[in-house]
Amino acid sequence: MRRVAGGDRVAFERLYLxxxxxxxxxxxxxxxxxxxxxxxxxxTMWVVWRSxxxxxGDAKVATWIIGIAYRRLMKALRDRPEPLELPTTLPDExxxxxxxxxxxxxxxxxxxxxxxxxxxxxMTMELAYYLGQSCEEIAAIxxxxxxxxxxxxxxxxxxxxxxxPALGGDTPPDAHAARG
Length: 180
Hints:
Layout: H1 2-5, H2 9-28, H3 34-51, H4 61-79, H5 100-115, H6 119-130, H7 135-142, H8 146-167, H9 173-179
């Protein structure tokens, strides 16, 4: 990061290439507009280039970059609302191998469950489970307390536990208890 802050374009190019795919997948989970995803990735990396000297090292470089992308995404969605829909495929889902149809069906099922969550819970879940961020890193990205992150994860898991069976065609567990 110091080399990027010093204006090293080669170091920046490596940083860009290293984070591009991860940022694209993260953003593509929140908008079906490929043009918006690329725009946000580029805006994010432009901020990184301009602000690299301000990076204090309080968080990992990846956490800092994802935080910038998260804020750019929230601003874009606020400024340009769009119907909430997911893309039919994500960049890492191409190809049909053995068991790929089942995996795609499982991903679609989980994706629909995530859509049922409030945006803050959905984003928290995706930061934790898709990007592997810790609660502390998510708190830094979303600019909230660690306790808020933990509460969002807890409530999101409860909501998914109650929503996913219905999305899969099964009756929720508490519906069985109500009948019996």
